[in-house]
Every structure is written in C-alpha cells, then in structure tokens.
Amino acid sequence: MDASPAFRPDSRLELSRRRLLQLGGLIVATTGACSKESAADPTSPAPPPPPVVKARPLQAPTMPTTPPVVPASHVVLCRDAWGANPPRPGGTPQTPVRMTIHHTAVALGDNTNAPSRLRQHQRYHQDTHGWIDIAYHLSVDRNGNIYELRKPELVGDTATSYNPSGHFLVVCEGNFDEEQVTEAQLNGAAVAFAWAAQRFGIPTDTLAGHRDFSPDTTCPGADLYTHIASGDLQNRVNGLLAAGPVDLHSICGPEASAAVADIEAGLR
After folding, report:
1. Quick one: which of 159, 150, 176 has its CA closest to 228?
2. Strand order, beta sheet including 75-77
3. Digit-coded pLDDT (tens) for 140-181
4. What secondary structure does DSSP assign to the chain, as a single string?
C-alpha cells in the first residue's frame, strides 16, 4: 500500500497568512506613528498661549439731534379772563382783507406783566384816545399766549397816519426796538394770522408791519420787523395753513381765569 503523501499547506492559505502578518505589522506601525505625533514631547517648550482678544463694549448708534420745537398756543383767552372793560358803543364794520402786525412800544419785561399791561392799554385807548376799545384784534405775549381784544369784524384804531380799515391787527406785547421777540411769540402770532387767513380768506402775502403803511412810526420795532422783511413770519403762517385747518378757539369762564392766573404766576 502506498504511503500517504505528506501534508502540505495550501499555497493560497500560506499567502493569506503572510498577508495578514504584513497588514498586522502595518497597523501596529501606523498606530505607533500616530501616537508619537499626538503625544507631547517633554523636552519641547510649551507653545505660547493664544492672544486674548478683548471684546469692545457695544455702543448705541449716534442719532442726529433735532432742535426742540417751541409750541404755539391754539387757544384764545377771552376778554373777561384778562379783565377787559366792555367795549363802548359804535365802531365801523369791516371784512378783513389784509394782515398787519404791531408792537405796543412799551417794554414788557417779565411775561407775568402781560395781562395787567393789556388792561393798561385798553384804559389808555378808551380814556385818552376816546376809542371804543383797545385798538387791535388779538394780542400775543412773550410766551405765545393769545388774548381776545376787539372783534375782527370792526375796524381797528391808530394814532398814526394810516387807515386801518380792512386790516386784521395782531399786536405783540413789548417794545422790539429794545427787546427781542421770542420764538413762542412769533409762533403765536403765526397761529393768529393763519387763523385769520383761513377765516376771512386773506392772502398771506398781505402780511406787513405797521411801518409799511405809516412813515411816522418804527412799529413793530426793529427786531420783530426783521421777521416780516425776511419773510420768516409769512413762511410760518404758510406752514401752518399747509398742515391743515388751524384750530383757534376761545376759552372763557373758570378755565380761562385759571390760565390767566397761571400767566401772572409765571407758570404759563
């Protein structure tokens, strides 16, 4: 009987074993290499710390500043509130067709004097000149408060050489050859004229100063007149009219009396 052939491993199996050994050695070598790269070398100096970046505090954006707007009164304080005497009988009816500004030509000083100054003007106009009433239709004090004077449907009066017939007359309290008109007073006058332009259909380009009709006066004073000559006051009137109806209403009774008391106390 023939002897059994010696056992020889299959060549493909031997190749696979050899390949596994090679791959095993490659894996070990690769793992060792990665470990050496990732491990810190104790002999190497420590790397410097990253720079510290300080965060800037957030700042609010700079907003453009808007100059404050000086409000104007849209209320007329009735005659009884400032202590007017009754008008005398008479007067000439009119329909206003133009607008004219005056000053009282008497330095006002503190605005707390305004109501009492109106009473003085009325006594002077009635008792000295013999007129039916204070000469103008509306008055505006330094703080822009508006006062009811003579009815606009009656012609005003003047001691100078011009005919005020057809003129809607606003007087600003003070002497503007000596004092400066305030923004509040200008705005109050603009409201008064805008109301008249709307009420009677008066063109705003008729707005003028007393001196424009009479060579024997500097009224309404140099400082106030600059706002006429430059067109500033007319522009204020036009701006009010462009914004819509001008609401100018009269108040009487306790509410108006309290308002006048506040003016005399320096609160308004």
Report:
1. 176
2. 208-209, 98-103, 167-172, 138-140, 146-148, 75-77, 249-251
3. 999 999 999 999 999 999 999 999 999 999 999 999 999 999
4. -PPPPPP---HHHHHHHHHHHHHHHHHHHHHHHHHHHHSPPTTSPPPPPPPPPPPPPP-PPPPPP-PPPPP---EEE-HHHHTPPPPPS---B----EEEEEE-SS---SGGGHHHHHHHHHHIIIIIS--SS-S-SEEE-TT--EEE-S-TTB----SSSS--TTEEEEEESS-TTTSPPPHHHHHHHHHHHHHHHHHHT--GGG-EEGGGT-TT--TT-HHHHHHHHTSHHHHHHHHHHHTS----EEE-HHHHHHHHHHHHTT--
67 token code pair: 């100059």
Tell me how far apart the alpha carbons of residues 106 and 174 are, in angstroms, rounded to a whole number.
5
Segment 70-79, tens digit of pLDDT: 445 699 999 9
How high is the mean pLDDT in each 10-residue block of the chain (268 residues)? 38 41 39 35 50 50 41 84 97 98 96 98 98 98 98 97 97 97 97 98 98 97 98 98 93 96 96
Token pair in block for residue 48: 């410097």
Q: Domain 75-264: give its CATH code.
A: 3.40.80.10
Question: Taking Cα atoms as reference points, which of 261, 257, 223 lies closest to residue 77?
Answer: 257
Between helices 232-242 and 222-229, what is the axis angle to 10°? 60
